[in-house]
Amino acid sequence: MKRCARRAVLAVTAVGIILSLGLATTTVVHAVATSVESDRISPYGTPVTVDGKRMNVMVAGEGPDIVLLPGFGTASPALDFAPLVAELAADHRVTVVEPFGYGLSDGTDTERTTENIVTEIHDAVSALGLERYTLMGHSIAGIYGIDYANRYPDEVTAFVGIDSSVPGQPGMDAEFPTGLLAVLKNLGLVRLVAAVSGDDYGSPAYSEHDREQLSMLSNRNSLSPTYLDEMAHIRRNFADAAGTGFPEGLPLLLFVVANNPSNPGWLQLHEEQAGAVSDGTVVPIDGEHYLHHAHAEEIAAGFRAWSESHLGSGADRR
């Protein structure tokens, strides 16, 4: 009996030693890789000063203005949206805003409430001198977009959602283990999982260089303090958005995943949102949540056709 107990203790001790050595290795690898990658990230865009910090923006094309906002946690909005920007910039001026904690923008200690995030984005847009524009956003930008459009109605001429979030969608009252996630990142386990699982940029629209840059920026920005603070505020931000909607007179165009197995009522939620304004249109697309990765041409063509009939001439929107 004593011999069995001793063997069990030795086995547990051995496993503990192996795990400790493994974690020590992943921690060191993560620290070294992060340092090396910081020198390999290629600069892009233009920084503007917001609240004393640098917020990165990317501007492309000429024509009526579009301000493009990312979904939560996008490592590099400018690179992520690149295929869609290339399509839209043929006849529009497209400004991709990288909020604090995203892309090449600085992090911030300011709470990641909807109010603060929207204020900061608007400060960046104002710094660029934009006065009238279509607000276009992916995922959680649908929640931020509601607040933005209601606070700056004289500037936003329309909202275009790319599988955008809506108030009342299920599952957004969860509390995330942000402390544990920070520990996992520092131990290098998040980097390890990312290396094994691959990326979401298999479309031919993304070059090998861009995919590499996106991977390095993801390793840097994912689960950063700013990222985790926004994650911690998701529950509150959705709760604050409950019962709200876009201004009744604001034209609304929503590109939506046609079949969302994890949320069978997804399309209906967007149809209800579109039905709450005087000019709302829903366009279902067979695809994944990041519709702009594989359907950039379809989204751009759909927006272009819709804007010609719903927003009038480009001169009226400048």
Would you give an account of this structure?
The chain has 12 helices and 8 strands. It is an alpha/beta fold and 318 residues long. It has 2 domains: 1-39; 46-317, Alpha/Beta hydrolase fold, catalytic domain (Rossmann fold, 3-Layer(aba) Sandwich). Helix 3 (82-88) runs parallel beside helix 12 (296-310). The chain is globular and about 50 Å long.
Topology:
Layout: H1 2-38, E1 46-50, E2 53-60, E3 65-69, H2 77-80, H3 82-88, E4 93-98, H4 114-127, E5 133-138, H5 141-151, E6 156-162, H6 178-186, H7 189-197, H8 208-221, H9 225-241, E7 252-257, H10 266-275, E8 280-285, H11 291-294, H12 296-310
Parallel strand pairs: 3-4, 3-5, 5-6, 6-7, 7-8
Antiparallel strand pairs: 1-2, 2-4
CATH class of the largest domain: Alpha Beta
| Regions with little confidence, pLDDT below 50 for 5+ residues | 1-21, 314-318
| Morphology | globular
Annotated CATH architecture of the largest domain? 3-Layer(aba) Sandwich
Task: Look at the helices and sheets and give the structural class.
Answer: alpha/beta
Strand proportion: 15-25%
- Count of domains: 2
Which sheet architecture does the biggest sheet show? 8 strands, mixed
